[in-house]
Amino acid sequence: MALSVLDNMKDFRVDQTLKQATYAFIASQLLTKQEKDNLAKVFKAFDKNGDGKLSMEEVKEGYLEHYGKVMSDEEVENMFNSVDTDRSGFIDYSEFVVAAMNERQLTSNDKLQAAFKMFDKDGSGIISADEIKEVLTFGG
Predict the structure, then answer these.
(1) How many CB atoms lie within 10 A of CB 86?
(2) Which residue has the higher pLDDT, 26 or 60?
């Protein structure tokens, strides 16, 4: 599990705010208990000081410990540039969950349908610009 989580985090890219918001909703609301438990174990293993966020150093150490390879400073910085969406300098748990999930798991048909319904506030079957703005402004 740790290996695939690390691969997903390393390759994670959020190109659009809508995609980011959709993934965040799915990760926070629609993951199974087993998915949540597995991710929590990996996060806790990386979060050496137990502060609920991952520093660049903790990610590097975790990568070495669980993956057996050294991650370059450039690779860690690139990961943080993609995963640390609030630009806090740390990866918090919600950012970790979104980045660590396999995209196929996040985008299963039932999860995408639930996310669509979250955006489609009036139930019309069409997501308007106003509905997107409402969700992104008020967090759904």
Answers:
(1) 10
(2) 60
- Other C-beta atoms lying within 10 Å of the C-beta of residue 134: 14
Residue by residue, what is the 3-state secondary structure of the chain?
A: CHHHHHHHHHHCCCCCHHHHHHHHHHHHHCCCHHHHHHHHHHHHHHCCCCCCEECHHHHHHHHHHHHCCCCCHHHHHHHHHHHCCCCCCCEEHHHHHHHHCCHHHHCCHHHHHHHHHHHCCCCCCCCCHHHHHHHHHHCC
pLDDT band at 140 (very low <50, low <70, confident <90, very high): very low
Q: Supply 56's token pair.
A: 């660049």
Every domain of the chain and the residues it spans: 2-138
pTM of the model: 0.65
Average pLDDT rounded to a whole number, residues 27-55: 88
pLDDT digits (tens, 9 = 90+) for 112-122: 888 888 888 89
Residue 5 in contact with residue 46, Cβ under 8 Å?
no
Assigned CATH class of 2-138: mainly alpha
CA neighbor of 94 nearest in space, from 118, 86, 46:
86
Measured distance CA(135)–CA(91) in Å, rounded:
23
